[in-house]
Amino acid sequence: MKKVQFRNAWFPYLLLLPQLSIVAIFFLWPAAEAVRSSFYLEDPFGFGATFVGFDNFVDTITSTDYGRIARFTGIFTFCVTFLSLGIALLLAVKADKVIHGASTYKTLLMWVYAVAPPVAGLIAILLFDQHVGPIVKLVALFGWKMQIGVNYFDTGFAMVIAAVWKQIPVNFIFFLSGLQGISKSVQEAASIDCRSGFRRFWTVTFPLLAPTGFFLLIINITYAFFDTFGIIDVILKTEPGNNPVTLVYKVYLDGFRGNDLGGSSAQSVVLMILVFILTVIQFRLIERRIHYT
Amino acid sequence: MATITLDTVRKVYAGNVEAVKGVSVDIDDGEFIVLVGPSGCGKSTLLRMIAGLEDITTGDISIGDRIVNKVDPADRDIAMVFQNYALYPHMTVYNNLAYGLRNRKIAKDEIDRRVKEAARILEIGDYLERKPRMLSGGQRQRVAMGRAIVREPAAFLFDEPLSNLDAKLRVQMRVEIKRLQKALGTTSVYVTHDQLEAMTLADRLIVLNGGAIEQIGAPVDVYDKPASTFVASFIGSPAMNLVPVRSENGRLQAESGAGLDAPNLHGSDRYLLGIRPEHLEISGEKANGTDGLSMEFTVNVLEPVGAESYIYGQLDGAGPEIVVRAPSHARYDPGTVLYLNATAADIHFFDAENGRRIEG
Amino acid sequence: MKRLQIMDHVILLAGVFFMVAPVFLAFLTSTHDAVTIYRSGMQFTLGDNFLENYHTVLTQAGGFTKQVNGLVMLKNSLILGFGFAIGKIVISMLAAYAIVYFRFPFASFCFWIIFSTLLLPLEVRILPSYEIVQSLGLVNTYTGMIVPLIASATGTFFFRQFFMSVPEELLEAARIDGAGAWKFFIDILVPLSKTMIAAIFIIMFVYGWNQYLWPTLITTDETFFTLVRGIKQILKVWIGAQIPDYDQAMALAILAMLPPVIVVVIFQSWFIKGLVESDK
User: Which of A13, B98, B295, B299 is the most buried (most CB within 10 A)?
Assistant: First the structure.
């Protein structure tokens, strides 16, 4: 906060009014509603609800379906995070190093940021399409009969590739700016102290990038959880069947398709707790980052 | 133009930290007052209280005949020059100068007249259409001055305005500020931690220490008769030598042993004896007289600074470090033993306990 | 040394290929007709149906009610992108200004209320949000589409960080210059934030334009469909179709990504600055 501030009885409230009323109506109210209805069993026709305590949570979490989806979500999140961070870091390190064409590479590697996840999904369906997709034709040469929308593994694979493709630019931008933030004199000192470029990277550059990396890790986990909804929905052509979906997708499915309000809300609350933990970790990291610099 | 009166002004921050401890001073109309002291002494807080940027915990501040404790900074009829200039980065120099006048609903042609006049005085007429980032440090400094001048305020407040400039520009701007203030005759309060700036600019100096006034006076008086060991060591460069002494057979000698001989003029047993480096005269042998001071001194380091040299060394054997100002051509090897003499008029006596000056 | 540089370029070119090729292929394919694509797969050359396909997608009314075409969806996407970005910037600047520059009772309470929204993305409270918007009668309105998306405090957080970095002396100088709270905001703070506003505008425009789930739920009336929302319609038509309209699907994909991509590429430096600095 500022040392010198204005003092005015009503003006700050007037300034806050729009934001606060939107937050109250479109955030606090629904969030409270989600928590409330997670403890109720709603009549599918809307004729009232019964309080059932933690039954919704117990039913949800113990169902075999939920376990399977949670496992897929975990694997999906791990693959997306690991691959998109890894590829982006490699590209950022190289883009930071080259002298010629650095800004062209940068533009070509970051523009996909602007592509909407469902658009990424739509392109992916065509690339992985059983009839017209070039990727399917390519892997068929190696004996892999890829069947998106039919084979569980193949569908998950396509989702991971599309999600990674969409997320590389953000990671690339952050890594590159992190690398450019490392002072030239530190790098020069390192090149005097250590001859092997590879070793230099792991002992000097990588530790200095670690705060950026931790920060991105959280961002990527959040992305894989929530922002991949569009990709998944489009790749499934909005008809999931027996194909892999993530936990967030199941919240949507149970709530809007299954009309299971209580179960969907209970799942929401579980996810809320998860996001809450992630955000607390993220704030901790941001604090640390500020202390570093 | 106006007088400024501070009446037992105190500032207490949260956690009971007393930043300013009951400061009272009357500043005359047109006077140039410099608040000087080490960082954290409360000088900036005091200035910001005069500006209205900090609340006053207790006490009164008046500008002219009006108590301004509760008056908004904009209505106090003051102008301020900040350490980092605080120019509005998105406005041209012209608009930076004009902004405060427009807010006061001053007629357009009057604003134009005043801006042009200030630009002429400060020689920034060529830059009026530029943005601050296109100016050098010195030019920005002038614009900040210009913003204060166009307001034609009752008082100028300066918060270390030269500390971001390089040494050469600082001297140049110092001279210019002094000239401007004399020409405009506007009451000014100027905060600095640089004692040279304080000495050269001030009509009267206020030396602050730990939130309280140590001494108020004309620079020469503060230099000649420092009210305490704090002022003595803060004003003057290199600082005054201070030697703990005790009375022995009616004469004074260093607490650490021999090496110093001086008359006891005030009849106490113990003092802090002060002598400025420039008042010590180097001699090859001990002075014979008994009315002055004489020290036996071993050279450690000679530090030539061009126009003169400083010799650092010790009183015979183990005494406190002493510095002597010598002509630039002086050459002494480390270990050389010299005698330093001074007349009684140049010796300062301070109370050994509280450091206050003892006057004859 | 020289050979290392060549390796670097090879890796970077592979990365560029991975990022660019899918979209390039999608574009090439969108210039052929559906039958060709159906027979011989995605196309690696420029076809001669470019004008026809894009003209069809933009102007031919589709959907069940035959009320919506590409131009209408483009208009809706622009309304969503601009409405969201402008609304978010105005509202969050005001809120951030109050939080940073004023001392008032319940200040920290308001702060925490607003920032608690960072904890829960729309996706986890989607069902109750939908019900509330429905009960307010905001289904199939631009208000219902845009305003609930603004509830998240990301913009407020960005501006708060930025305002905190503005030197205090500027406020002091402005107060001595006689500027009140509103004048300081309009005359000093807003112009100072220009680059920051531009950066956040780009990020928010892209975010708003790319919204999928929320517009899907909140718009059933086809005249409110956005380009991104339109993808879902295409998929519905595909199911059961003899020869899916691959050509039109790809043309729609290209159209849906073009505006945000152009904005991001042109204003690259602002956008990157905003993205990287605001997250600190």
Answer: B295
Nearest CA among C86, C92, C82, C229 for reference residue C151: C92
Residue among C123, C161, C225, C238 with most chain A CBs within 10 A, to mutate? C123
Nearest Cα of chain B lies from the Cα of C177 at a distance, in angstroms, of 4
Does A257 lie at the interface with C, CB-CB under 8 angstroms? no
Test C172 with B100 for CB contact under 8 angstroms.
no
The DSSP bridge pattern shows strands B270-275 and B241-248 to be antiparallel
Whether residue C175 lies inside any domain: the answer is: yes
Say whether residue C121 is in contact with chain A using an 8 A CB cutoff. Answer: yes
CB–CB contact C212 A127 (8 Å): no
Asked if the C-beta of A285 comes within 8 angstroms of chain C's C-beta atoms, the answer is no
Q: Could you give all domains of chain B from N- to C-terminal order, each with its CATH number?
A: 4-226 (3.40.50.300), 241-351 (2.40.50.140)
CATH code for the domain in which residue C126 is found = 1.10.3720.10
pLDDT tens column, C28-82: 988 888 888 888 878 888 888 888 888 888 887 665 556 678 888 999 999 999 9
Mean pLDDT of chain C: 87
Q: For residue range B239-264, what is the model confidence (pLDDT) as tens digits? A: 999 999 988 888 888 887 767 888 88
Domain spans in chain A, listed from the N-terminal domain onward: 55-292
Cβ–Cβ under 8 Å, residues A118 and C228: yes
Q: With an 8 Å Cβ cutoff, is B74 touching chain C? A: yes
Which of B48, B90, B104 lies at the smallest CB-CB distance from C191?
A: B90
- Below-70 pLDDT ranges, chain A: 1-4, 43-47, 285-293
A152: phi then psi, degrees, rounded to nearest 5: -60, -50
Find all residues with CB under 8 Å of C122, minimum gap 6, and list them.
C129, C148, C149, C151, C152, C213, C214
Hey, are the CB atoms on A226 and C249 less than 8 Å from each other? Answer: no
| C41 in contact with chain A, both atoms CB, cutoff 8 A | yes
Domain with C147, as residue range(s), is 70-278
CATH superfamily, with its number, for domain A55-292: MetI-like (1.10.3720.10)
Q: What is the DSSP string of chain C?
A: -HHHHHHHHHHHHHHHHHHHHHHHHHHHHTTS-HHHHHHH-S-SS--S-HHHHHHHHHHS-BTTTT-B-HHHHHHHHHHHHHHHHHHHHHHHHHHHHHHHHB--TTHHHHHHHHHGGGGS-GGGGHHHHHHHHHHTT-TTSHHHHHHHHHTS-HHHHHHHHHHHHS-HHHHHHHHHTT--HHHIIIIIIHHHTHHHHHHHHHHHHHHHHT--HHHHHH--SGGG--HHHHHHHHHHHHTT-SS--HHHHHHHHHHHHHHHHHHHHHTHHHHHHHHHHHT-
